Structures are given as C-alpha cells and as structure tokens.
UniProtKB/TrEMBL annotation:
Pfam families associated with the record: Aldedh
Entry-linked PANTHER family: ALDEHYDE DEHYDROGENASE-RELATED
Organism (species): Pseudonocardia ammonioxydans
Recorded family membership: Belongs to the aldehyde dehydrogenase family.
Protein name: Acyl-CoA reductase
PROSITE patterns for this protein: ALDEHYDE_DEHYDR_GLU
Keyword Magnesium: no
Amino acid sequence: MSATAADSTAADSTASTTAVPAEFASLSPRTGAELARYPVHDGEHVRGAVRDAAAAAEWWDGLGFAGRRTRLAAWKKVLVRQLDRVARVVADETGKPFDDARLEVILAIDHLGWAAGNAQKVLDTRSVPPGLLMANQAASITYRPYGVIGVIGPWNYPIFTPMGSIAYALAAGNTVVFKPSELTPGVGHELARTLAEAVPEVGRYPLLTVVTGFGATGAELCRAPGVGKVAFTGSAATGRRVMASCAENLVPVLMECGGKDALIVDADADLDAAADAAVWGGMSNAGQTCVGVERVYVVESVAGRFLEKVRAAASVLEVGTATHEGQLGPMTMPSQIEVVRRHVTDALDKGARAIVGGADSVGQAGDDGVCSVRPVVLADVPEDSVAVTEETFGPLVVVNRVPDADEAVRRANATGYGLGATVFSAKRGEEIARRLRTGMVSINGVISFAGIPALPFGGVGESGFGRIHGADGLREFARTQSIARQRFGLPVPVVSFRRPAAVMRAITGALRAREWFSRS
C-alpha cells in the first residue's frame, strides 16, 4: 500500500548540492519527540551491503525450499511472540492507533507464512509437453532467484507493505537489502532484528540488510552492482525516478504506486455495510492508504439514505493526540496536510457540499511537527476537482451521485490510476467488478483482497505494474529458466547442417497431414 506523491523515501536520480547529514532522527507524529537516530548511508555502504547480500544469497539458495521454509517459519514464530513489541514501533513511528499497528503486523505475519509454505509448490521445476516435432526432448521450466532484491518501502504501512516483497523474495531464494522510509526506519530494524533472532546463520549470512537515509540512499541501492531487481512502493512520480536509476544497469523493477480508488454503491446495496466500508476504507490510517476509499459513486435512488449513514458514522470519529489514541492517528508526514487542505478548499470553492467537517478540519502543523486532519466528507464534488482527480492520502471521502451503476463504472475508470476498487451490490457485484480497470476489487467488503495471501496485489497505469502476494508475487522474485533435454537421438539430424533435404519434405508433409486431419 503505497505512500503518497509527497513521498521522499525512494531513489531520486538528481544530484544534490546540499550537505548530507551523517544521521537523522525518527520523530513521533503524535508528540514530535525524537524516537531514535539512524545513519544516512552513502553509496559505499550500500554497495557493501549488496556485496555481502550477494554472497549470502548463494548459501540461502543452496538450502533449497525445505531449508528456507524451516527458517522462515522460525521467523514467523518470533514475530508472533514479539507482536506487541513490533507493533509498538509501528505505532510510535506512524502515529496510528496501537491496535491498527497490531493488525498490520498480523497481516504481515500471515503473508510470511503463506510465502514460506507455498514457494516450493509455485516455483519448483515442472515439466511441460515438448510437442510432436520435439518428441525426443524432455521440456521443463524452473524458477531461479535473482540473487539480491532491493526493497524500497513506504511509511504508511511500514511492515505490511514491504513484507509483501521481503517475505516472497526470501521464500523464492533471494536475499534482501531493504531501504525503509526515513519516517519509519525503526520498523525496518525490527524486521532485521527478529529475523536474526530466528535464524542463527544470519550473523554470517545477512539475509535482510537494512540501509537508512533519504532519496539518495535509495538511488544508490537502485544503481548498486549486484542488485537483481528492485521492488518499490511509493508515488508514481518517485517511481519514475526509481525506474530511471534502475535503467542504468537494466535492473528490472516492480512498481506499487498510488491510487484513487472508487467505491460503487448500487441501488440494491446493503447501505449500512456500504456506509461502514466507505468510512473505514476512507478514514482508517488517517486516510493514508493507497487502496483506501477516496471516491464514492452512489446510485441516485439510494444516495440520500447512504449519505446520512456515512455522516453518522464519520462524525463520531476522533483523531488521537499525545494523551488520547482515538480512532485516527495524526498525519504521519507533516507536508501531506497541505495536500489535504488544497483538495478540500478546491472542492468547496467549486460548489461541493460539506457533509462532515470542512476546511476548518485541516489542522496546522505546529512547531513540533504534529499535525492532524479530522474526518471530511464532501458531496456533489465536480469531477474536475483535484479531490477527484488527484490522490489525496488523507481522511477525505468524496461522495457523488450517479444515475446508475453504468455511470458509476465510467467515472470510476476515468482516471490514470488503476489500483483497487470496491463494489456494493446484491446482484451485480461480479459483473460490475469485471468492468473496472483495476488490479483488485472487493465486493460487499472493503480492501478484503489485501488480507488474502493467495491473491496477487498490484495495479495498472499510474498505479504501477508487477505483483506482490500470491503465486504471482513469488514468481515476481524469480527468473524463469526453460530447459530442453534430449531423451534420445533422432535417426536423422534435424537441427544440423548435415540435415538431408528429404527430412524437411517429410516434416512439412507431416505438418500438413496433421492440419488436414484436425479439420476433418
């Protein structure tokens, strides 16, 4: 689940003339207090980390599926045992409620277990038919690890999202160098610490190495010799810079970028469930969810009742403070508050109606950097408003009326993004879902696809390409190798300069005869 367009976590291919500090502080979004300090790793350090990871990859690959599964299962047990400790770091660095952080860790653990348990079934060598003309060959497909995977993670879901790459990459036989967001470096270190505790060999063979810093550190990871693939989560703008850096060495990339996800409410929808989904999907994690609900298209005949239910559910939500947790945390990145403010004021200036909150719901970032946004629900927002066209990444939900579900689909697809979507309909859910230009859809639920480890996760268009999770996620971190093995020699040579002319006449005749019989 990607971070927003203001994300500065990843590679920036432009050179900077500003002096780079030796270290930086991780700050609490709730209090502004310093949590810890971390080094800003330079290119030499990153390249060394990749070299060490490459050496460890040979050992890790050599363990085979069973050996890796045993060690990843041990990691899972450590994470389960230390769930609250890890979740506390997530909550402290992001500002999200502690139980939301716990849920994030639980989801990450579930995906780790699925990846470890299914890697052999998905990636083991398999035979394929050689075909009539190559009947003397045995054909097989095998999946080989890239070696070292560079993972550049976001700050909004700092353990769940990168684990969608880290766990699957490790299960596929790779080692990982992880660049967490500069806003959540402690979560990255918790992952590395727990893995080292679970796998004693990590002291000699670094399976998961954490490098910290800003965009330049991410750029160094993209360019480091020996990186086999880079998995990036963040904005499309930053993703383009990551791709440019990776292109220097023709390093393949996986892009999980932003979204402007729509929720469609059909005339026969369960309105209570749809309203609850719209509020939770749009407001949880302070709206900082790439697959969160940002736009709602509700059929006119039920719009009035739906809006009232949304108003009732959203108006009671409270934003947490230093002393009170609330249902929503503060904005993790202070600069994001100005994006939310611009979207709200632009919509209201263009004639939108405030159902919950309004321009005064968007707080100011204080001297300590703490900032928050109370829930905002706007109705009848013009489709050319930035609240409709751009990713907001805050607790703002736009609700617009449409004459029917067909118009809802048209508007939902009228964006460059294509990540997730939600449909509430008693009878037409599957039909509507298949017409949406998105990588994922939840029917009569919200963000359900993210919690199912077997389902691939990813988008199209401005939302990126490639997949994490599921069998597709495992294959994303392995290169396909095709093998043809001759089982017996042919009486006459076919792929040889010694081939007689009569051989091709015989093959051509056999092909034509087969086609004739197949049409009969």
